[in-house]
Amino acid sequence: MNDDTRELKVEKHIAAPTAKVWEIMTERLTEWWCPKPWTTEIVEMDRRPGGRAAMVMHGPNGEAHPSDGIYLAYEPGVRFAFTDALNADLTPQTPFMIGIFSIAADGDGTLYTACARHWTDEAMQQHKDMGFEQGWGAVADQLKALCEAD
Predict the structure, then answer these.
(1) Cα–Cα distance, 133 to 67 (Å, whole number)
(2) To which H or E segment does residue 41 belong?
(3) Which of 88, 35, 89 is nearest to 57 (CA)?
(4) Cis-peptide into 37, omega within 30 deg
(5) pTM given for the model
(6) Three-state DSSP class for 113?
(7) Comparing C-alpha atoms, which of 77, 68, 11, 16 is closest to residue 45?
(8) Residue 126: CB partners within 8 Å, gap ≥ 6?
(9) Which residues pair with 139 in a beta bridge?
(10) How many whole angstroms separate alpha carbon 62 and alpha carbon 39?
(11) What stretches of the chain show up as alpha helix (H) in DSSP?
């Protein structure tokens, strides 16, 4: 946790080249984005700064958690970042976080880093209490398994 940026972070070494990890991160998002048994439905992914980033996460008991925001950064092979503070029409929404997902060469593999930055201490604590470490850790493990399986 980084108190200066109200950041929660998960890092994972993946024994696969960065190009492969990036491809799976972006092209097979529905296979790793939510901790199983949850699933992800992509509504729209306009992968460019200002482009819409919208999805619905579905739970095993019929829960549906929509997320509609915008990309802040999209650097192929390096990182992408999005926020829920604005929608694609640049209409302010109640912000919860900025999500930043990056990869970098790490020895013979790739270092995957996922972090969530929050506007307030309360939002950061809420995210932590929702199970950030377990949930985002499970997602990192799912991504790792996909990347190392092929």
Answers:
(1) 20
(2) strand 39-45
(3) 35
(4) yes
(5) 0.92
(6) strand
(7) 68
(8) none
(9) none
(10) 11
(11) 18-27, 121-129, 132-149
Structure confidence by residue, pLDDT tens digits, 66-104? 999 999 999 999 999 999 999 889 899 988 899 999 999
Closest CA to 25 of 119, 149, 147: 147
Largest CA distance in the chain: 43
* Alpha-carbon distances of 124 from 5, 55, 128, 129, rounded to whole Å: 10, 22, 6, 9
Q: How many CB atoms lie within 10 A of CB 50?
A: 12
- Summarize pLDDT for 97-148 with one digit per residue, the tens: 999 999 999 999 999 999 999 999 999 999 999 999 999 999 999 999 999 9
Residue 40 and residue 57 in contact, taking contact as beta carbons nearer than 8 Å: yes
Q: Cα dist. 91→31, 33, 45, 50, 131 in Å?
A: 30, 25, 18, 12, 29
Which residue carries 């020895």 as its tokens?
107
